[in-house]
Amino acid sequence: MGSRASTLLRDEELEEIKKETGCEFGQITRLYSRFTSLDKGENGTLREDQVNFRGFMRTLAHFRPIEDNEKSKDVNGPEPLNSRSNKLHFAFRLYDLDKDDKISRDELLQVLRMMVGVNISDEQLGSIADRTIQEADQDGDSAISFTEFVKVLEKVDVEQKMSIRFLH
Amino acid sequence: MWKQLKKHRSSSSASSASCGESLSEEELARILEQVEDKKKLIATMRSKPWPMARKLAELREAQEFVEKYEGALGKGKGKRLYACRMLMAKKWAKFKRDFDNFKTQCIPWEMKIKDIESHFGSSVASYFIFLRWMYGVNLVLFGLIFGLVIIPEVLMGMPYGSIPRKTVPRAEEEKAMDFSVLWDFEGYIKYSALFYGYYNNQRTIGWLRYRLPMAYFMVGVSVFGYSLMIVIRSMASNTQGSTSEGENDNFTFSFKMFTSWDYLIGNSETADSKYASITTSFKESIVDEQESNKEENVHLTRFLRVLANFLIICCLCGSGYLIYFVVKRSQEFSKMQNISWYERNEVEIVMSLLGMFCPPLFETIAALENYHPRIGLKWQLGRIFALFLGNLYTFLLALMDDVHLKVKTTNFPPIPSAHHISFLKYNTFLVYNVHELKKFWKVDRPSCSFGSDVPASRKSVVAPLSDVDVHSPQRKFPTVPIALFCSCLFICYLADCELSKEFMRLTVSDMLVTYITILLGDFLRACFVRFMNYCWCWDLEAGFPSYAEFDISGNVLGLIFNQGMIWMGSFYAPGLVGINVLRLLTSMYFQCWAVMSSNVPHERVFKASRSNNFYMGLLLLVLFLSLLPVAYTIMSLPPSFDCGPFSGKNRMYDVIQETIENDFPTFLGKIFAFLANPGLIIPAILLMFLAIYYLNSVSKSLSRSNAQLRKKIQALREIEKSHKSVKGRATARDSEETANGNSKNSTQLQLPKEGTMRHSASQSQTLDQKAQGPEASSSAGKAVPPASQHLPISRSPGARTGSGQARPQAHPWRSASGKSAQRPRH
């Protein structure tokens, strides 16, 4: 840990990041050097979203693979950032554009438009959105809440698909 | 802090006391306690509210103390052992971690494959992963053969030139070093350890008394055994991953909505293709929906389907007869003197023409059947396979007549050179043809599936057969199964010493054809399109030739079938596996370069998820097909008289018999004889059949109960859904009414709701959860209603499933309170 990058990252911050995300020291320093190489303006944040290193780490921590021995460690403490529920929450927030904890029909339409471009007509997109809500919605409020989202994806192996193995 | 300093001083006093002799009881106990304290301190250091510098100092001190005294805790003589054990355990943990890291870094070509994945999607990358896996398997096989057969022969066997089978005959000697001769696997290469014919049948060789024939035989058997084991293991691990996916009928559109984007894409061109593929996949689902709602006139459909099948069977019989006729004619031609080029090659021409024109014919006939596009495609594949197999059988049948005739007239097993040359010519001709066909079909094939709904995309779009790209399998299918099957049969007639050469030649020629096709078809085409675009009338990039796409299934099938060839040939040519390793290595680098430089991402970028087991299953089938002829020759044919390690024996497996008699003690021989008794083997086989039957029925019953449970869950879900929507409306109505006569306190809103809803068990359960819901949902951000405190908390186990229901209850409540806030308070 005598590289140039680590001198910019204080030990206290390292400790805090390690506690919050559960990553190892080596991983954090490596990711910090990647972060600095991405950060071309050298102002401590990534270009468009003004994400600083803490935010960067917090987002990446969601993608840490789940290890078995972790489950027994800390039953009373707060849930680690890479648990299945938090991963799904991360995915949910991608689609919930106005952050009201519901995915409404309009948000679905916006996301569909982004995914598909102009190749499908508006009317068909509308029916796709309606059908999606019809499949997933269980309480009849014409929107998809987080629990309904979880139920839709309960058969998907999220732990494996939303995991990136960082090199140690 | 004072307590820490005191402990420090007492620990240092303990150290001075222990310098001399062994410790007394109380000192031991005290040290033990201190060590435990230090350990606890280390574990909880993070949460202590001290500044960082102090934490680090304490940490270092505690670690030193623990290290020093942990060894002292063992009593007397055991103390050293205890220290050693702790040390070993720590070192072992560290070693395991480092080794894991090392293994991850050692995976070859990982960066290249990741690069390709980001440009072309995960399906193209899966081809390269498969190639890498195949390379690993071949490397292991090569190690086995090289280490156990070739090296002993080279080191300890009789040198070149000592016996006739190891020497180039004088007649050939001048030409033996010529490149053209070497390229053909004649000359010095033929008389080397790479080929079966070189090995001597001496029972033991060298000062180690290495049993070479026995080793050769066992290595041949274990090559197949290892390959079988590793293919099945790979298939099993694939299925384990996919069973959790299960039935996705319920949420088709939601799945497409939420999980279709591939977040690993890092290139804008690929992203554009991904748009197109998502569009296509949505349209496919729409078509599926339409198909399932369609009404059918059952009788007309059935009649049309029967008619279509009848027509197709007529076509198949017609093509079989045509081939038979043409082969007979060619045999007559071969007796004549002056024959034209056409008459010489008539068979190959007819077979290729049949292969080119029958499949589109099948497709037009199949339009009568009016199947769902996916099912129609499966039928089409099956029919094409039947066409090619049928052609093959008739071809061989026609040839067999001739060969049988020859066998009868002459007394030794013939080398039907005319026929096997024509077979090889046919094979290479087909290989060239196939690559031609690929390009022809990809551009002009009409899209038969969606009708007017689908806008014409640049290339034709066919309904997906899960994730498999269906264009190419029907074209690659013909060539190498034909080659394999032919080799199966010709093995019986060709001498084993000749066979090895043929396999080598075939492998090398196939490799060359592949490379040349890639160079010409992909690279030169890309160069042409790029550079001629400036001076051409139409846009070359968007229009006719454009850039090639990477042909995944063609390449994977080629890889699989070539591996089949290698397996078949490895018994007869030990050097073949080495050549294959080289070939896979060069192929990896060459294709990585070719893909990145001259291919564009697919129009339909699909995920490589479920098709992996399809290719593994095909690999397994090919393994069996290539095992059969080798097993047949080992068991039934006598080996050649003058070449190979088994020469002079009656059957090849006699070498095992010999080894058991001469090298093992006699009681082992008796045991083996006992085990080989058919009276023992047949009951064992019966037992295995019974075990298979039992396991099969167990697994069927398990999957049935699985399906029933799933249905039950679904039914429950439907009931809940309808229940919730009804109740949602009911509570909204109720809360509107009760909001009228209410005062400010929000909890009083709840009480009337409690009153109306207490009459059913499930509703009271949801009531608990509703009350606990606002507590549980942190994002709701509401104050906990005091009324919830007197509700029974014993229902909490149900809260988990019902917590989802808590939320919806909150909503009408929220809307109700909103409404109440709007009404003027009187």
Automatic annotation (TrEMBL), chain A:
<dbReference type="Pfam" id="PF13499">
    <property type="entry name" value="EF-hand_7"/>
</dbReference>
<keyword id="KW-0677">Repeat</keyword>
<keyword id="KW-0539">Nucleus</keyword>
<keyword id="KW-1003">Cell membrane</keyword>
<dbReference type="InterPro" id="IPR051875">
    <property type="entry name" value="Calcineurin_B_homologous"/>
</dbReference>
<keyword id="KW-0479">Metal-binding</keyword>
<protein>
    <submittedName>
        <fullName>Calcineurin B homologous protein 1</fullName>
    </submittedName>
</protein>
<feature type="domain" description="EF-hand">
    <location>
        <begin position="124"/>
        <end position="159"/>
    </location>
</feature>
<keyword id="KW-0653">Protein transport</keyword>
<keyword id="KW-0597">Phosphoprotein</keyword>
<dbReference type="GO" id="GO:0005509">
    <property type="term" value="F:calcium ion binding"/>
</dbReference>
<feature type="domain" description="EF-hand">
    <location>
        <begin position="83"/>
        <end position="118"/>
    </location>
</feature>
<keyword id="KW-0519">Myristate</keyword>
<dbReference type="GO" id="GO:0005737">
    <property type="term" value="C:cytoplasm"/>
</dbReference>
<dbReference type="GO" id="GO:0005634">
    <property type="term" value="C:nucleus"/>
</dbReference>
<keyword id="KW-0449">Lipoprotein</keyword>
<dbReference type="InterPro" id="IPR011992">
    <property type="entry name" value="EF-hand-dom_pair"/>
</dbReference>
<dbReference type="InterPro" id="IPR002048">
    <property type="entry name" value="EF_hand_dom"/>
</dbReference>
<keyword id="KW-0813">Transport</keyword>
<dbReference type="GO" id="GO:0015031">
    <property type="term" value="P:protein transport"/>
</dbReference>
<keyword id="KW-0472">Membrane</keyword>
<comment type="similarity">
    <text>Belongs to the calcineurin regulatory subunit family. CHP subfamily.</text>
</comment>
From TrEMBL, chain B:
<keyword id="KW-1133">Transmembrane helix</keyword>
<dbReference type="GO" id="GO:0005886">
    <property type="term" value="C:plasma membrane"/>
</dbReference>
<protein>
    <recommendedName>
        <fullName>Transmembrane channel-like protein</fullName>
    </recommendedName>
</protein>
<keyword id="KW-0472">Membrane</keyword>
<feature type="domain" description="TMC">
    <location>
        <begin position="499"/>
        <end position="609"/>
    </location>
</feature>
<dbReference type="GO" id="GO:0060005">
    <property type="term" value="P:vestibular reflex"/>
</dbReference>
<feature type="transmembrane region" description="Helical">
    <location>
        <begin position="380"/>
        <end position="400"/>
    </location>
</feature>
<dbReference type="GO" id="GO:0050910">
    <property type="term" value="P:detection of mechanical stimulus involved in sensory perception of sound"/>
</dbReference>
<dbReference type="GO" id="GO:0008381">
    <property type="term" value="F:mechanosensitive monoatomic ion channel activity"/>
</dbReference>
<dbReference type="Pfam" id="PF07810">
    <property type="entry name" value="TMC"/>
</dbReference>
<dbReference type="GO" id="GO:0005245">
    <property type="term" value="F:voltage-gated calcium channel activity"/>
</dbReference>
<feature type="transmembrane region" description="Helical">
    <location>
        <begin position="480"/>
        <end position="499"/>
    </location>
</feature>
<comment type="similarity">
    <text>Belongs to the TMC family.</text>
</comment>
<feature type="transmembrane region" description="Helical">
    <location>
        <begin position="347"/>
        <end position="368"/>
    </location>
</feature>
<keyword id="KW-0812">Transmembrane</keyword>
<feature type="transmembrane region" description="Helical">
    <location>
        <begin position="614"/>
        <end position="635"/>
    </location>
</feature>
<dbReference type="InterPro" id="IPR038900">
    <property type="entry name" value="TMC"/>
</dbReference>
<feature type="transmembrane region" description="Helical">
    <location>
        <begin position="133"/>
        <end position="151"/>
    </location>
</feature>
<feature type="transmembrane region" description="Helical">
    <location>
        <begin position="306"/>
        <end position="327"/>
    </location>
</feature>
<feature type="transmembrane region" description="Helical">
    <location>
        <begin position="671"/>
        <end position="695"/>
    </location>
</feature>
<feature type="compositionally biased region" description="Polar residues">
    <location>
        <begin position="738"/>
        <end position="750"/>
    </location>
</feature>
<feature type="transmembrane region" description="Helical">
    <location>
        <begin position="571"/>
        <end position="593"/>
    </location>
</feature>
